[in-house]
TrEMBL record, chain A:
This protein's name: Cell cycle checkpoint protein RAD1
Chief localisation class: nucleus
Keywords, alphabetical: DNA damage, DNA repair, Nucleus
Recorded family membership: Belongs to the rad1 family.
Record-annotated membrane-spanning stretches: none
Quaternary data: Component of the toroidal 9-1-1 (RAD9-RAD1-HUS1) complex, composed of RAD9A, RAD1 and HUS1. The 9-1-1 complex associates with LIG1, POLB, FEN1, RAD17, HDAC1, RPA1 and RPA2. The 9-1-1 complex associates with the RAD17-RFC complex. RAD1 interacts with POLB, FEN1, HUS1, HUS1B, RAD9A and RAD9B. Interacts with DNAJC7. Interacts with RHNO1; interaction is direct.
Protein's UniProt keywords contain Transport: no
InterPro entries reported for this sequence: Cell_cycle_checkpoint_Rad1, DNA_clamp_sf, Rad1_Rec1_Rad17
Biological function: Component of the 9-1-1 cell-cycle checkpoint response complex that plays a major role in DNA repair. The 9-1-1 complex is recruited to DNA lesion upon damage by the RAD17-replication factor C (RFC) clamp loader complex. Acts then as a sliding clamp platform on DNA for several proteins involved in long-patch base excision repair (LP-BER).
SUPFAM superfamilies in the record: DNA clamp (SSF55979)
Subcellular location: Nucleus
From TrEMBL, chain B:
Cellular localization per UniProt: Cytoplasm, Cytosol; Nucleus
Gene Ontology BP terms: cellular response to ionizing radiation; double-strand break repair via homologous recombination; meiotic DNA integrity checkpoint signaling; mitotic DNA replication checkpoint signaling; mitotic intra-S DNA damage checkpoint signaling; nucleotide-excision repair; telomere maintenance
Example of a GO cellular component annotation carried by this entry: site of double-strand break
Key words of the record: Cytoplasm, DNA damage, Nucleus
Principal location: cytoplasm
Gene that specifies this protein: HUS1
Protein name as annotated: Checkpoint protein
Length: 273, 280
């Protein structure tokens, strides 16, 4: 990346946040997966960046991109926060094309000077450099689902491949998706109640798709199926190596990469029973 | 008025098909000008196409094994036909592995360009597929609006980078803004810039070649780093780029500061000139 390293180290001091990636593709994919609204909140600490998209307090998606994923990552302050137009950000990150050309890599350098300043993106592919300056906005309050493991009642880790199929076949004429977890059969069940009748999909705990299963107490949770639409899209977009962690205490589920990679978290509000 | 021509060479046929595909992408309606030595596809700079004009020229000898034409009159030995570009490209699509292709000007209740494609079936017997493309004969008095555009002296002349990269970038920029600035200098730099309230995006192409300066041209005293720019409708640029399915043999970009951008392309032996005016 000779063109990007022209930005010498001293310049970094003026920026609150500097992050570099040799390949912008994974960042683009994970942000695209949570792109169900125009705006996103960005929150960076020395541990990494969290991007949050929220809809009317019913659905919140978070993408965590850990510092270790970046080739260079510096955050000068305790934390850096801003609100940004995610649609524009995605168009900029994919400026050289939405589908990657085999054999080419697009490098990214992201710089943010602080409150009131735009987010600067420097993207390079094959010697061509694109510079983007995106205006940032006042950060808005997002619901904080700081989720404590002590409240976890039941936990299952599933390979996303299996769940992806199930989600893509959900009966959308049903208003709700019911998720049941029990220490005995059926262990993990997805149910819908549509025009043609009810449908149940069971994943036995010894199934190949189930990586881990912890359940002490039967729990039945219901979710509005329309709220799940963006998350099923995320499952489809996520790479093959994601696992799903479903924590039925709060209706949260994590999409977690099998190997070192960014993490996605979805929270979907429970319906009143 | 008479016109009949034949292509028997497979490579010529494919090339002609590619040219018609390109024209179909560049202009919904175009004018086909037939003269003894050349074929031209023309789009003149009417308000209807937002001031964009196109001049495509090919040498008939490079394509046709037989070529006969008789124009409107002896002094005006040309034929101007207006047609829907896609009709021609669709007809040629069926000629992919044809043995021969014949084009003829006919009258079937109304004037038509009749394309006959001779195809070989598996059993070695041939069959003929005929397409009648309706055309409008353009009267002599309107020919003056369809002449080869005069190319003004550009402020900057530069060879374009890989068109595929330009097209990807412009496609994305179109999501953000309706207009864009294209600028270039005599030091091999070309930039595409968009700016809205929300975002500014600039793509920098470097180390491009500039053609040698013509002596006594206005560019001689010009500071090589100084940019010449034009503010244009992004969709027109994208339409032009989308029409280039194959990388051209040569691609030159001429900018007249704040007036227009002129693209001068060569696809093997077919020349294409495309003019996009500045936004008023």
């Amino acid at each position: 990346m000779p063109l990007l390293t022209q930005h010498i180290q001293d310049e970094n001091d003026q920026y609150s946040l500097v992050a570099s990636l040799d390949n912008v593709r994974n960042l683009y994919t994970i942000l695209k997966a949570i792109h169900f609204r125009d705006h996103a909140a960005c929150f960076a600490t020395k541990n990494g960046i969290k991007v949050t998209v929220e809809n009317a307090k019913c659905v919140q998606a978070n993408a965590f991109i850990q510092a270790g994923i970046f080739q260079e990552f510096t955050v000068q302050e305790e934390s850096v926060t801003f609100r940004i137009n995610l649609t524009v950000l995605l168009d900029c990150l994919s400026i050289f094309g939405s589908s990657p050309t085999p054999g080419t890599l697009t490098a990214l350098r992201m710089c943010y000077q602080g409150y009131g300043y735009p987010l600067m993106l420097f993207l390079e592919e094959g010697g061509v450099v694109t510079v983007c300056k995106i205006n940032t906005q006042e950060p808005e309050e997002t619901l904080d689902f700081d989720f404590c493991s002590t409240n976890v009642i039941n936990k299952i880790i599933l390979q996303s491949e299996g769940l992806r199929e199930a989600f893509s076949e959900l009966d959308m004429t049903s208003d709700v998706l019911q998720i049941t977890m029990s220490p005995d059969k059926p262990y993990f069940r997805l149910s819908t109640f549509g025009n043609a009748g009810s449908s149940h999909l069971d994943y036995p705990k010894d199934s190949d798709l189930v990586e881990a299963f912890h359940c002490n107490q039967t729990q039945v949770n219901r979710y509005k199926i329309s709220l799940l639409k963006p998350s099923t899209k995320a499952l489809v977009l996520s790479c093959k190596d994601f696992w799903l962690l479903l924590l039925t205490g709060f209706g949260q589920f994590y999409l977690k990469p099998a190997f070192n990679g960014p993490l996605m978290q979805w929270w979907v509000n429970l319906l009143n029973k | 008025m008479k016109f009949r021509a034949k292509i028997v060479d497979g490579a010529c046929l494919n090339h002609f098909t590619r040219v018609s595909n390109m024209i179909a992408k560049l202009a919904k309606t175009s004018t086909l000008r037939i003269s003894p030595d050349k074929l031209n596809f023309i789009l003149s700079d009417k308000l209807a196409n937002g001031g964009v004009s196109m001049w495509c020229e090919l040498d008939q000898k490079n394509f046709f094994s037989e070529f006969q034409m008789e124009g409107v009159s002896a002094e005006n030995n040309e034929i101007y036909l207006e047609l829907t570009s896609e009709n021609l490209s669709r007809a040629l699509k069926t000629a992919q592995n044809a043995r021969a292709l014949k084009i003829k000007l006919t009258n079937k209740h109304f004037p038509c360009l009749t394309i006959s494609v001779e195809l070989l079936s598996v059993s070695s017997s041939s069959r003929i597929v005929t397409h009648d493309i309706p055309v409008k004969v353009i009267p002599r008095k309107l020919w003056k609006d369809l002449q080869e555009p005069v190319v003004p002296d550009p402020d900057v002349s530069i060879y374009l980078p890989v068109l595929k990269t330009m097209k990807s970038v412009v496609e994305k920029m179109k999501n953000i803004s309706n207009h864009l600035i294209i600028e270039a200098n005599l030091s091999g730099a070309l930039n595409l810039k968009i700016e809205t309230e929300l975002v500014c995006v600039t793509t920098h192409f470097k180390d491009l070649a500039n053609p040698p300066l013509v002596s006594e041209s206005t560019s001689q005293d010009r500071n090589p780093e100084q940019m010449a720019e034009v503010h244009i409708d992004i969709r027109k640029l994208l339409q032009f780029l989308a029409g280039q399915q194959v990388n051209p043999t040569r691609a030159l970009c001429n900018i007249v500061n704040n007036k227009m951008v002129h693209f001068d392309l060569l696809h093997e032996d077919v020349s294409l000139q495309y003019f996009i005016p500045a936004l008023s």
